[in-house]
Amino acid sequence: MPDLRLAIPAAAAWAAAGFGIALSDLWPVAISLWAVTGLVVAFLLAGRARRTAPLVAVCLAAAALTTSAAAAHQPERRPDAVASAADAGLHVRATAQLAGASGDRFTATLTSLTARGKTITGLRVPALVFHATPDGAGIGSTVRLAGLLQATAAEDDVSFLVFADRVELAADPPPLLGLMDGLRAGFREAAAALPGQGGGLLPGLAIGDTGAVSPALDADMKTSSLSHLTAVSGANCAIVIGLVMLVGGAVGVSRGWRVVASVVVLAGFVLLVTPEPSVLRAAVMAGVVLVSLALGRPLHGAPVLSAAVIVLLALDPWLSRSYGFALSVLATLGLLLLSGPLTGALARWIPRPIAALVAIPFAAQLACQPVLILLEPSIPVYGVLANILAAPAAPAATVLGSLGCVLLPVWSPLGLALIQLAWFPATWIATVARVLADLPAPRLAWPDGTVGLVLLALVSAGALSALLLPRWRRLAVIVVLLLLAATLGGTTGTRMLQRAALPPNWTIAACDVGQGDALLVRSGTATALIDTGPDPALLTDCLDRLGVDRLDLLVLTHFDADHAQGATAVLGRVEHALVGLPDLPEHHELIARLTASGARVQSAAAGQDGILGDLRWRVLWPTAAVTLPGNDASVTVAFDAVGDCPNGCLSALFLGDLGAEAQTRLLAGRGVGRVDVVKVSHHGSADQNGALYDRAHATVGLISVGADNRYGHPADALLDILQRSATRPLRTDRHGLLLLSAAERAGTVTVWTETVAGDDVSGTTPQSNDSRAQ
């Protein structure tokens, strides 16, 4: 039986840190916990305590330790002077030490800050800076920056967001960190020369640099449950240390010197790959094991893991809210507790080596799934298979890539050869991810929230019982099958029926997201989304119904909540984003989140164009003369057919929330032509220019509008404009989801509506959810 005595204090330390860091004043809590700990110890010494008292004392002490650490760190993480500058909206200047970079943002530690002519020094404030890193800057570099501050929630891993308008390199990193930056840069350059997805994935596998992983590959890795391989994980530390110990033993190096070499290599590896939560967890565990080996007192895995959790939470209590840290700990715990019994159970039916190969990813998946289901309410159908296929390649890519990285500046031909060899297993992993992600139903929808968590826990418990408890196997199998049938039948089954009822050849869709815009344009396999509505859940539901998993183009016409607040639903699913003029800090934050999720983000401007399948998109507005954000700066985009368009195309004009004055200026630019579909501006408000709709002369006018909205949208004046221009209005408040496709006869649009509404102003009526407008 595994020794889990230290696991309970580790859980207590974790819970105390997780709840405590959200409090503004932790010292009273910490002092109270220490006082109660002292009382329990006093009862123990007096011989008047129960048998469980030692465990209670250790739990209380662990909780007191992490809350005391959090209380001690709070003032330095969020100094009053810095918080005041953020609250006042002051433009500040600061120096910072760069900690990590991703796209056009980077994490840093603010070391000094100047506001209102007063400079504060000696700071150690974690911050997230929204700006690209300067050329030549690496981890450990000192940078000077200027911009606006915004405080985050107390439990966030960074204390402030910095929206910088200027960042410049002030000083190079310390020599050791500079050496690691140089190694990483050389490896990235060598890997970038390698072809295909393997070259982009290799830096992540070997040194934890995911900058070259394409959005498509990232999505495939997540879909196939291989995302833990996208970047360096704790397993890489074990591989490196195991290799040092094995090679040292093979050449006759004593155990003591092998331990010393392992510690040095481990420290260097952590600096090279950067101290991510999973790497820190593995490094501390490896350190504890190495010390115990040096002392000749080997330890079991579970106590080592528990000790590592307590140590890391005492050093950084904010790890308690890190999903990466939680997944790393749970995966390790699953391997320690479940992989052995599962291997033994499966070995009754299949050869033991194959049983172990299946049991290891299955154990990790079972342990991590409760957290994963909170992040993504779906079950990976091929997750275990993907990990079985990828498992042999990951260590090879890590070892060969890491060695190549270190040897590249020392002996370039050998280093380059090792990197090229590492490309083969990296390419294999990328291929596995792509192939399995493209299989039918790679993930099955699962209820989200607490209900989904409880159901999944029951299914997992039943599966384990079926495998490990022969006496209860039949009952456990029946329970699991019933739970799966009921749950999947209520989610995936319902979703499949909904999709089957939709016309397969739609080209334009208007999602019903209430008083807001969320419209899709599809051509072949390419899809664009114009605005995201006010509610991520409503947008997610619409995209799921339509089977849209990936967006080639996202257009955020402007940042009003009814057009952009739902954007969090598509993070990680966007390849290219065009955005309107940002105004508030949260708008800049959304742009940064889109960039960090893998999207290529551009500020939209008239004259930009591109291809979407058989369509060409053109940005008609705003022009360079538009400098103020808001409705009249809405990005206006038109879609026109290119070539023969074999699948049928509809030309369209999307007007955002442009008012009559901006519409007049748009008309003057002569970019507006006749189209099949017009997305009516501003949910059908009365602030319209009828000449614009006459020029467009659209067959269908889409009005994204909420039922019983307080604005009176759509206005009678707008409906009169559409009637005069022979444009048939279709409204999401009456018709729900709207799907349009090109009919065989030119100038005719096939319309599918979710609900059958009453007569529209144009005098036509949707019939049986399918009608033709002309």
Biggest sheet, spatial arrangement of strands: 14-13-12-11-10-9-22-23-24
Strand coverage percent: 15-25%
Spatial extent as radius of gyration: 29 Å
> What is the tally of helical segments?
26
Mean pLDDT: 85
Category by helix and strand content: alpha/beta
Helix content: 40-55%
- Tell me the span between the first and last alpha carbons: 74 Å
Please summarize the sheet with the most strands.
Answer: 9 strands, mixed
Query: Spans with pLDDT under 50 lasting ≥5 residues?
Result: 757-774
Choose one word for the global shape: globular
The total strand number stands at 24
Question: Would you mind describing this structure in some detail?
Answer:
- By secondary structure, this protein is α/β, with parallel strands linked by helices.
- It is 48% helix and 17% strand.
- Helix 25 links the parallel strand 20 and strand 21 (728-731).
- Helix 9 runs antiparallel to helix 10 (277-294).
- The radius of gyration is 29 Å and the shape is globular.
- Residues 757-774 have low confidence and may be disordered.
Which terms would index this structure?
alpha/beta; globular; 26 helices; seven-stranded mixed beta sheet; 774 residues
Write the layout of secondary structure elements.
Blueprint: H1 7-20, H2 27-45, H3 53-77, H4 80-87, E1 91-102, E2 105-115, E3 118-120, E4 125-129, E5 142-151, E6 160-171, H5 175-192, H6 196-207, H7 215-223, H8 234-250, H9 255-273, H10 277-294, H11 301-315, H12 323-346, H13 352-375, E7 378-380, H14 383-390, H15 393-407, H16 412-437, E8 443-445, H17 449-468, H18 473-490, H19 492-500, E9 508-510, E10 519-523, E11 526-530, H20 536-546, E12 551-556, H21 561-564, E13 574-579, H22 585-596, E14 600-603, E15 609-612, E16 615-621, E17 636-641, E18 652-654, H23 660-668, E19 677-679, H24 690-696, E20 700-703, H25 716-724, E21 728-731, H26 732-735, E22 738-742, E23 749-753, E24 770-773
Helix pairs in contact: 1-3, 1-11, 2-3, 3-11, 5-6, 5-15, 6-15, 6-16, 7-16, 8-9, 8-10, 9-10, 10-11, 11-12, 12-13, 13-14, 13-17, 15-16, 17-18, 18-19
